[in-house]
Design a protein that fits this description.
Strand order of the largest sheet: 3-2-1-4-5
CATH topology of the largest domain: Nucleotidyltransferase, domain 5
Shape: globular
């Protein structure tokens, strides 16, 4: 597997909830992350927080970026993805768009006592009484996540039927409405780095938000 140069860093941005999360690392001896509860002020202060957070590193130090692509707040997700795409384009570096649910799943898997063959199901409230859901499996040798059920939006009844007919044991993670997810930004960065190590170099234009529902219907939650 490829390793990043020790003087290069990855940077992750998480804006899919009212909590802004930022993380950077050279995946050797220098890592840090921080989250702030900003609510709707994310749109106003995001650039300022990023500039202050990366110091003493400079933009030239980054080899790739990662961004939370949703699901979550429509407005927050859109702002984060647009900002990350702009920066990655200007810096000419790869941009990994990582699912909000995948970041939570990876965070939980790293804290689990027994992680062998761990299957994690996640549910998070959406608009109009629906739910964002996904199911992941911890890959062998703790090398990332594989999707058993990609993130999607569904009804509680359909989701319950899916769980009842699931044939293998799983851990269910219930993400509360309006939950602050910025703290999972380190997991976001770790998943991106695992992809980097596998030789993946996604172009910034490939980073697209996942809203799950029509944006007009989600603005009230954004």
């Amino acid at each position: 597997m490829q390793r990043i140069e020790s003087n290069k860093y990855g940077l992750a941005i998480h804006t899919s909830s009212p909590e802004l999360g930022l993380a950077l690392s050279n995946f050797a001896d220098d890592s840090r992350s921080k989250s702030w509860s900003l609510g709707r002020d994310i749109s106003t202060h995001l650039h300022q927080y990023i500039v202050e957070f990366i110091e003493p590193q400079t933009w030239a130090d980054f080899a790739f970026m990662a961004v939370a692509k949703g699901p979550g707040s429509f407005t927050g997700t859109r702002i984060g993805v647009v900002t990350a795409r702009t920066l990655a384009q200007q810096l000419n570096i790869p941009l990994f768009a990582i699912s909000t649910l995948a970041a939570v799943a990876w965070e939980k898997s790293q804290n689990a006592e027994a992680i062998e063959n761990l299957v994690i199901a996640l549910q998070m409230p959406a608009q109009r009484g629906q739910m964002f859901v996904a199911i992941y499996h911890l890959a062998s040798n703790n090398s990332g996540l594989s999707q058993l059920l990609p993130e999607t939006v569904t009804t509680p009844e359909a989701w319950q039927e899916t769980l009842e007919t699931w044939t293998t044991p799983y851990q269910l993670i219930d993400i509360p409405p309006g939950g602050d997810l910025g703290a999972s930004v380190s997991s976001l960065l770790e998943l991106a780095y695992l992809n980097w190590q596998q030789g993946k170099r996604p172009h910034w234009s490939e980073a697209l938000p996942f809203y799950g529902q029509h944006p007009v219907e989600q603005k009230a939650a954004g």
